[in-house]
Write a structure and sequence with these properties.
The chain is built from three helices and four strands; from the N terminus they run E-H-E-E-H-H-E. The protein has 116 residues and is of the alpha+beta class. It starts with a strand and ends in a 15-residue tail after the last strand.
């Protein structure tokens, strides 16, 4: 299992419920099409955070690196309806930082992989 971890700040905090609905429309579609395994939206509680912690976190689960590659490939084939869903959700985002995580410790125990 891999987690695509997204730290999100909205352009306008008063559009939080609209963002939640847009994320559900977009990511719910990806899950229903088996492009992703699961997802969840989290919001900072009581404004409690330090450093670069953002107001929202989105965690997107994919089974493997090959599943993540397949997801990106499928997204490149979006039709107009799905492009509009994505663009609306993305239009609400002021800043976004992403990272890819895995459960740890795991059987592979590889901290660095290189071909050269």
């Amino acid at each position: 299992m891999n987690l695509y971890h997204c730290m999100v700040e909205l352009k306008s905090p008063d559009r939080a419920l609209q963002f939640a609905a847009a994320a559900d429309a977009w990511l719910g579609h990806l899950k229903s099409e088996n492009i992703i395994t699961d997802w969840r939206l989290l919001r900072r509680k009581f404004g409690l955070a330090s450093g670069q912690h953002t107001d929202f976190l989105i965690e997107i689960e994919v089974e493997s690196m090959s599943a993540l590659e397949k997801a990106f490939s499928e997204l490149s084939k979006m039709d107009d309806e799905h492009t509009r869903r994505y663009e609306f959700m993305h239009s609400l985002i002021g800043s976004l930082n992403v990272g890819l995580y895995r459960p740890y410790p795991d059987p592979a125990q590889r901290e660095r992989i290189a071909l050269l």
